[in-house]
Structures are given as C-alpha cells and as structure tokens.
C-alpha cells in the first residue's frame, strides 16, 4: 500500500549497532503496528500504538523499542542489534473505520552480521 | 488466546483448476477473520474478511472464503487459479485486548500455480 512507507527498504548492520527503522503513513489512521516476518513463523507483533500517547508491547518486544513521534510516524529501534534479529520488518496501520483491517508497508529487509 | 492454524506449508495447483488454502481458528467469542496475500518483495495486501453475516465472503482478485463455525474453519477459495495467484497467503484473527484489538497471523501457505 503506497500510503504506508518504510525506510530504509534494505539494511545491513553489524552486531551491537543501534539501528532505527521508520514508518510513515498518509492514511490518517490512528493505529500503527510493527511486525517481523521469519520463514515458517508468519508475522509476529513487536509493538503497537493506538494513538500518539499509547505504546504497547506485542508478542516479541525484547530487544526492541518504539517511538510514536506523531500520528503519522512510528519508528522501531534495535538498541543493540544481534544476528537473530535478521528478518523482514513490516509496519501496518488501521483505524476503527477499517474494522480491524490493517494496511501494510512494503517492508524493510534487515541483515545483522 | 486467539490463534489460527494453516495446516499446509505449500499448495500446488494447475492453472484453471479450483484452489483451496486452509485455515482453522481458535477463538473465544465471535471471530473476526482475515486473509492477506504477499507477493515476492512486497508487503501484505488485504484480500477479504469475515465479521458477521453471510458465511461466504467475496474478496479481491476473484477470491472468496467460507466461514464454517462448526468446523472452526475459514478456507480461502478460488474457482479457477491463475499463475499470477502464486504467492504467500496468510490467515489472521482478531485478538481483542483491553485497550484495543490486534491481529494474530498464521504461519502462511505458499501457493504455486503451474501452467
């Protein structure tokens, strides 16, 4: 969905480095989500936010942090990257009107060496 | 906790034949169920959802899904497969939380349509 953008699209980093993945949306949605995708495991929720002042841990939040800078922006940080954080990361948005339907960004492919 | 299971890692079908991608669910309360598709190097795209009403839900690209409460299933179907339908398909269920809802995804099923 072009209304949800993620930067960077690809990133290679080294163990121990701090890295930030960014998500922006123009859909006007108040809810935003970060997932990681690993082969055979589907998508697992890392963090989610239902409005600017709301942050919630998901299924696999350890080693990650987030910041909701504005309604349209939701960033994911890896404070000290490790190789098992190598994955495909997706941002998604939704609102009450969409009745739980989430709209996904194109993903960020992260490789931690 | 709410969950969905996709029992097949991969489904192979010939072009022009009907296809089915299976999903079963486990929820407390009324289920909200979704299907998403992921093409190579792309994000997930919404296909269809069931909230209430008619058990047969029609979605994008000619796909439909049948909600079966007695079998706790929500299988994705298409009467005639296209090579371009080849992709990774995810079933998902709404998980109601105290402060809002989120989706729980299955592991995904690879669909390969051969010409």
How helical, in percent, are the residues of chain A?
under 10%
Mean pLDDT of chain B: 93
Residue fraction in strands of chain A? over 45%
How would you sum up the major sheet of chain A?
Answer: 7 strands, mixed
Largest interface: A-B, 27 and 25 residues
Overall strand count of chain A:
11
Strands of chain B, total number: 12
As a percent range, the share of helical residues of chain B equals under 10%
Order of helices and strands of chain A: EEEEEEEEEEE
Given helix and strand content, the structural type of chain A is mainly beta
Order of helices and strands of chain B: EEEEEEEEEEEE
The end-to-end distance of chain A, rounded to whole angstroms, is: 30 Å
Structural class, from helix and strand content of chain B?
Answer: mainly beta
Which terms would index this structure?
A: 113 residues, four-stranded antiparallel sheet, B: 115 residues, mainly beta, six-stranded mixed sheet, 12 strands, 54% strand, globular
């Amino acid at each position: 969905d072009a209304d949800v953008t993620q930067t960077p699209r690809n990133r290679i980093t080294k163990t121990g480095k701090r890295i930030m993945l960014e998500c922006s949306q123009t859909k006007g949605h108040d809810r935003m989500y970060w997932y990681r995708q690993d082969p055979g495991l589907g998508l697992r929720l890392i963090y989610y936010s239902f409005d600017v002042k709301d942050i919630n841990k998901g299924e696999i939040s350890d080693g990650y942090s987030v910041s909701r800078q504005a309604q349209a922006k939701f960033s994911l940080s890896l404070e000290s990257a490790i190789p098992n954080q190598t994955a495909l990361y997706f941002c998604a948005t939704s609102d009450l009107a969409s009745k739980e339907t989430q709209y996904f960004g194109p993903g960020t492919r992260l490789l931690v060496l | 906790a709410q969950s969905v299971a996709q029992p097949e890692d991969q489904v192979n079908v010939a072009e022009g034949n009907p296809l089915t991608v299976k999903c079963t669910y486990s929820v407390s309360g009324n289920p909200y169920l979704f299907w998403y598709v992921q093409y190579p190097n792309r994000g997930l795209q919404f296909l269809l959802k069931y909230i209430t009403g008619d058990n047969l839900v029609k979605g994008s690209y000619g796909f439909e899904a049948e909600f079966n409460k007695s079998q706790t299933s929500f299988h994705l179907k298409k009467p005639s497969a296209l090579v371009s339908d080849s992709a990774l398909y995810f079933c998902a269920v709404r998980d109601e939380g105290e402060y809002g809802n989120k989706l729980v995804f299955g592991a995904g099923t690879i669909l390969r349509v051969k010409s």
